[in-house]
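Tutorial, part two.
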Amino acid sequence: MSSTLYAPGARVVIRDCEWIVRRADPSDDGGYILTVDGLSELVNGKSARFLSRLEEEAEAIQVLDPAETRFEQDMSPGFEKSRLFIEAQLRQITPADQRIHLGHKAAMDPVPYQLDPALQALNQPRQRILIADAVGLGKTLEAGILMTELMRRGRGKRILVLTLKSMMTQFQKEMWNRFTIPLTRLDSQGLQRVRNNIPGNHNPFYYYDKSIISIDTLKQDNEYRRHLEQAYWDIIVIDECHNVAERGSSSQRARLAQLLAGRSDTLIMLSATPHDGKAKSFASLMNMLDPTAISDPDDYAREDFSDKGLVIRRFKKDIRDQVQQEFKERVVKDIHMNASPEEEAAYQALLDVPFTYRGEHSQTKNGQLVRIGLQKAIFSSPAAADISVQQRIAKLQKKALVSEDEQHEIQSLKSLLLALRNVTPAAFSKYQSLVKLLKSKDYGWKKTDSEDRLVIFSERIETLKWLNDQLAGDMKLKADSVQILHGGMSDVEQQSIVEEFGKPESKLRVLLCSDVASEGINLHYLSHRLVHFDLPWSLMVFQQRNGRVDRYGQEQTPIITYLINQSDNPTVKGDLRILEILKEKDEQAYKNIGDPATFMKVHDSEQEERLTEEAMAEGMNADDFDQHYQPEDSNEGDDLLSLFLNPEASQPKTPEQAEQHTVEDFSLFPNDYEFARQALEAINRERNQVSVSVNNERQTLTLTPPDDLDYRFRFLPPEISPDNGTLVLTADKPRFEQEIRRSRQDENAWPKLHYLWPQHPAIQWLQDKLLAQVARHSAPVLALPDTEAVKQQLQPEESVFLVSGLIPNRKAHPVIWEWFAIRCQGGAVTEVLPARDWLQALQLDSKLPNRAQPVSLDALESLRQPVIQAARSEMQQRQQAFTDHTQPQLDEKLAELAALKDRQLTQLELQLQGSQQAEHFKAARREERTSRIDRIFNDYQTWVSDTLTIEPVPYIQIIAAFTRAHG
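Running the prediction step on this input gives:
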């Protein structure tokens, strides 16, 4: 084994570049495999692996011993160089606690409840969480806060987001605008761009560290699925994750998600409708988050995993006290209209059709379900019904042998077609009511107002196409002012239309949406009016549709309008009343209950539609339908989710309570803007290499990125590159919020301003430049003047060393990172203090004059060894305290995992005993499943051990030394 001990956190020089050691794993040749991150300019931001034995033989590896740190006296005015260097070092410190350090400072006004998912996840040993908040509460923002916190902790370098193709641009922009997380969009165009830039045998998922892709794109591309299996991320986010749950059989989407679940430490799932009411479906999501969670997907209870914190779920009613300003109370308007004689004739023609089932006339449920399918189309529009009737006729006529009953049905369907074609636009009462509504002064919609867009929903694409043709003429709308959005469009088309709808300068005024647009996308920026042209047949669709405009960030009062047809035909009247009852139940859920799935309890929109159809097919009375679907008396509403919920997580919090969970990290500068401004000025004083202009009043810096900063932008999404080669950074939140709004008017719809805060690539570049200004393995010496603050903190013959101590866990994540102010006098260490307290009392700012009188460095150099020893002693105490605290936790966790594993093996045996399969099949199943259980638990036990076990050797670094100037 190599005689040199490589401590994670240690600085090493390999091949004339400086690196920080992240992991040191024993290798077969007796040395170590060193996993390192680059520190010096040529390798900054790069990761590499070296075999220590090979490098040692070539004498190409040098461990930088802190006891050999070189000292350089700082002669800069106001100790500018040292202050910036110390600040840049302070900003490297990663938090190891469970509080929010940066996410709450994003370009948004966070409400206390939005911090809860990050707090809940950070309190778990592994950040795996399903954010299942109701539609419109801001799940994307909540995910962004958690991602930011993990990036702040050095655990978010590589990120993959999977979402719906219609939402890729929206999610990408939200992450960049609010959190400066640069996700590269791998839609069909983005994938082609990557293919053009890399060799054919390279993995595209390593070309960009942070990317966003549609799960359907991955599903359709075998090549990219193979690349997935060989890539690993720090964070994976699956948006609208109910689409990847197992529903009966394992779909391609579900298999892909299961593969990805094992390809990252952190997994964040988002969905307002996280399961379909079936225990097994929900278990599939939970087992992606934690494969040890559930031993029997068909039968599990709260006790199995109550402490895992895998789910957080809130409704508007839960957080109403926190959001009076952020959420406007919606206004609901019902417009009832009587069916025209032509419509009544069409309804009767439908009821007169003798529907067949398997070739025979059937008045039973099966035959009636065919009627209900066509009735659903008629309730949408005559145009939709026309297409459906033609399809039914074609289906019957295509049969090799058409029965007599089927001939009768075909003739009656043809009569129905004639009746439908008599329903002209003038006789189509719902359409006439829509036109009247849009023209009415009471409604107040102005087609010329670019900030008052209209959203109209229908579940039938034929209805949308008909409306598109008809509205343009009747409302005198220009051809490019009405657009249809539906699921049959390509990813680029869908994203383009959604983006266009959010731009004030766009000519688009009316968006006609199928229910593909009811899932996830934001339509609220310029729209607060939504019309349901037809009533949904599912409560969950009501919630999804309304949530497009009634959501967090809506500045106007949402106006939701329902067009409700009425008929004198008793059968039709009853069926229409059932749809009205669904609408009333949605309003009840919105006001009092929260979850609309509480009523029908199937948690799946298609299942809810099926129940509605069956009620109509069976001739159920509307009042009976209402009574049949009532919420549980317990008002708990969602039995499956309640198993996983942390009861405390849903408790409302005040801003004061939320502040207890946030941290203001210590800084030598009043804010990020001042740090960046002074840093740029200092860099230019040295080399004059950055062209920059400063606006202190607006807290804005405008610079032309030098080559090394420009190079970093090449590996970021092209949309965020500085406009015309000019980078404009602002720390003014209100101004940046205005810029986000203004950017929706722009051709490319991306802000021209960039948010100035620690997560921006330019600030990270700046910090690297400052660190590089102090020579490798050196520390500045500050000879301080005799101010009152200095006299109180530093005696005439005393020196103080600022020292950093770092101990990571086996996963190379910093766990203990402390800074000490170590006092020395008479050639020995006299006291060790927390560095933050000492620096605060010292008041090290630009007002402190530097007399630049040379001091002898010999005395300081002789103190290096005792100072390092004192820091090691302090770190050993913290190391011991950490181990004493976590060892019982580790033992308990490992024992718990062993018990869970035994439970899963026992469950397997019970299943096999109940199986009627032949013994050799059982033996094969036993071997395959046992092997899988062993692998899952071994992996998880290794992960837990590596997370809770810290490395034995701390890395110590002398940051700076302070002494008193003579005279």
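Residues 634-638 have pLDDT under 50 and may be disordered. In part three we will examine how such features are distributed along the chain.
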